[in-house]
């Protein structure tokens, strides 16, 4: 995994490693609980400083080794590379856990703010802590690597004989409108996850023991301790943010369910209750933009499709990445280094297994940044490329921070930057770069907003529910024999979607989503889907854009770029509210920016739902 120790080197995929990026503070509430510390000789401030320096140097050195091993493993999945990557992961975890424990000795000393923050990060910025017992550490590293491999190698052979990988199956889900085929693909992909169940169960057991060794009740508290506030306060923050956007989601859900019912009929798509998850254009029903053409408002469809525009202009994978880089350089960021172009993976290799799930990497904690992505030439992947480059430009912006502060303000920030830029891929921007001839007029805004909401608003409950499930698994509230049932209860509760075919505890549907076998925390994406609208609004203000915020593009605006860079450069050196304030002037995460952006759509959806006399909710 990415060792990335306190920072995430490989952002998308935190493979099983021990530590990941996170933010913690000096406040009492955020600190790791004090483990039993033996009353040895009282340490001094000088000793604490020496400890931090040494830990930082050792972790930085280990990260280089681990990043390389992980990169090779994810690009060439074999038994040998799995074993090598697990061996390095084991070393990194052992060192991280050792430092986390030793750090506890120094917590009561009067340290300066930076050192206190570093110490706290050393104690709490782990996502897969191993028990102190070396045999268990080795076991955990092996399991983590195996789980990743199972996902990366996953394939499903269709009834017609074609054996397809994840990106190919996802493309089918995006395009097909045949409910039987969709059902087959949906259920077929989930077969890959069944063998993960015992591994995942053991992984949770071991990592919980690791968390307890560090003084946390379970891994749940450790994961929730990484936001500069007490774990329960963080959970309450999430509830607050979800409460802000839930009415908007319900309006969208209601409209989509009604339209699907009209097109597929009662048998396939019932008028009431949860929506069958195979009909939403996405393997996990997490973003619904692919079914926009089925739902497009008759008089307000902007009438273009980015996938087609890219094809018409002859964009290949490399050109898509170049165009995305160009957005960042237009804001004043330096171009990507030559090594990025030489070493990144853009196209799925035909002759070997790789982890296709898109990720951004920082191999040397400085300039050797890369992406690894099996790019499809679609409008969706054009956006994902911006997402990944957002990680890379963030990584490079904080490269001069000390190692422990090389990370984002909180993990939601890392996920939000590229998406913020992608919100500027407006019709006007597409015209500026020669992809679109004519900018549709304001009468087409509802179509634009609906397309955007199907991805961004539909994602919100999904972004939230994954870790609601995992935290309960970690705390023991969800037992192994309830894994799948509890998963579907949460899918139903938050998203209002349901499995299209019977599920049982022989299935392990969470494992069919990359971040579960990959052990990547997921709440970061929920946060990112709020934060990106706050950032976009603030940057549009800085750019003095006067139109509606959904038509604003900050392309080419150096003032907006400079402000963004000022926040990125801070890395994880300060509590996240301070970083947020640099761009937005406010220290609170706030979903009003989401509501403002979609306000015209919300009124329109409510009108449609009323006119059709729909009973909303599920
Ligand atoms: O995993 C990702 C990125 C890499 S960090 C491609 N995302 C989440 C997902 O695919 O589930 C971006 C949006 C949500
Ligand atoms: Zn990401």
Automatic annotation (TrEMBL):
Q: Does the keyword Coiled coil apply?
A: yes
Stretches assigned to coiled coil:
45-72
For this protein, the record's CDD domains field holds: M2_ACE
**Which residues carry out catalysis?**
388 (proton acceptor 2), 388 (proton acceptor 1), 515 (proton donor 2), 515 (proton donor 1)
Binding site residues for chloride: 227, 524
Q: Which UniProt keywords apply?
A: Coiled coil, Disulfide bond, Glycoprotein, Metal-binding, Signal, Zinc
Q: In the record, which residues are listed under signal peptide?
A: 1-20
Which residues bind Zn(2+) 2 per the record? 387, 391, 415
MF GO annotations: metallopeptidase activity; peptidyl-dipeptidase activity
Which residues bind Zn(2+) 1 per the record? 387, 391, 415
Q: Which PROSITE patterns match?
A: PEPTIDASE_M2, PROKAR_LIPOPROTEIN
Question: What is the recorded name of this protein?
Answer: M2 family metallopeptidase
Q: Which organism is it from?
A: Shewanella cyperi
């Amino acid at each position: 995994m990415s060792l990335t120790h306190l920072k995430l080197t490989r952002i998308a995929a935190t493979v099983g490693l021990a530590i990941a990026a996170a933010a913690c503070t000096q406040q009492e509430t955020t600190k790791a609980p004090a483990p039993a510390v033996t009353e040895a000789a009282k340490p001094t401030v000088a000793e604490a400083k020496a400890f931090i320096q040494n830990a930082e140097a050792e972790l930085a050195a280990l990260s280089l080794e681990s990043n390389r091993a992980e990169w090779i493993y994810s690009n060439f999945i074999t038994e040998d590379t799995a074993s090598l990557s697990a061996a390095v992961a084991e070393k990194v975890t052992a060192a991280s856990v050792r430092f986390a424990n030793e750090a506890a000795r120094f917590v009561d000393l009067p340290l300066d703010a930076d050192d206190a923050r570093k110490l706290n990060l050393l104690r709490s910025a782990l996502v897969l802590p191993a028990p102190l017992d070396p045999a268990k550490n080795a076991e955990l590293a092996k399991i983590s690597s195996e789980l990743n491999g199972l996902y990366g190698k996953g394939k499903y052979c269709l009834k017609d004989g074609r054996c397809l990988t994840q990106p190919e199956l996802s493309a089918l889900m995006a395009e097909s409108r045949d409910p039987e085929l969709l059902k087959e693909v949906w259920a077929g992909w989930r077969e890959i996850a069944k063998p993960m169940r015992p591994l995942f169960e053991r992984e949770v057991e071991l990592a919980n023991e690791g968390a307890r060794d560090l003084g946390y009740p379970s891994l749940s508290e450790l994961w929730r301790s990484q936001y500069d506030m007490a774990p329960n306060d963080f959970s309450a923050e999430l509830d607050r943010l979800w409460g802000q956007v839930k009415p908007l989601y319900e309006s969208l859900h209601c409209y989509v369910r009604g339209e699907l019912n009209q097109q597929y009929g009662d048998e396939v798509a019932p008028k009431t209750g949860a929506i069958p998850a195979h009909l939403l254009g996405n393997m996990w029903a997490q973003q619904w933009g692919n079914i926009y053409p089925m739902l497009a408002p008759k008089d307000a469809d902007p009438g273009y499709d980015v996938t087609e525009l890219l094809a018409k202009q002859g964009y290949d994978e490399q050109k898509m990445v170049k165009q995305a880089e160009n957005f960042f350089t237009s804001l004043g960021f330096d171009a990507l280094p030559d090594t990025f172009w030489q070493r990144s993976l853009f196209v799925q290799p035909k002759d070997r297994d790789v982890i296709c799930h898109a990720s951004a990497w920082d191999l040397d904690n400085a300039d050797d940044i890369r992406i690894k992505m099996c790019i499809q030439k679609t409008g969706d992947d054009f956006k994902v490329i911006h997402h990944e480059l957002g990680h890379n430009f963030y990584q490079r912006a904080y490269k001069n921070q000390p190692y422990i502060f090389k990370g984002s303000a909180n993990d939601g920030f890392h996920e939000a930057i590229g998406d913020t830029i992608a919100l500027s891929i407006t019709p006007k921007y597409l015209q500026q770069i020669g992809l679109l001839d004519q900018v549709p007029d304001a009468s087409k805004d509802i179509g634009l907003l609906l397309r955007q909401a199907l991805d961004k608003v539909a994602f919100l409950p999904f972004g939230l529910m994954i870790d609601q499930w995992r935290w309960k698994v970690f705390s023991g509230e969800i037992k192994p024999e309830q894994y799948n049932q509890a998963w579907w209860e949460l899918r139903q509760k938050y998203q209002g979607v349901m499995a299209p075919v019977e599920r049982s505890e022989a299935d392990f549907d969470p494992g069919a989503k990359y971040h579960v076998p990959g052990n990547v925390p997921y709440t970061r994406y929920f946060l990112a889907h709020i934060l990106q609208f706050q950032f976009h609004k603030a940057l549009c203000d800085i750019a003095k854009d006067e139109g509606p915020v959904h038509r604003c593009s900050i392309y080419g605006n150096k003032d907006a770029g400079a402000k963004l860079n000022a926040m990125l450069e801070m890395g994880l050196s300060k509590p996240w509210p301070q970083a947020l304030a640099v761009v937005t002037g406010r220290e609170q995460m706030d979903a009003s920016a989401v509501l403002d952006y979609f306000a015209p759509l919300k009124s329109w959806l409510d009108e449609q739902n009323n006119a059709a006399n729909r009973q909303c909710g599920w």
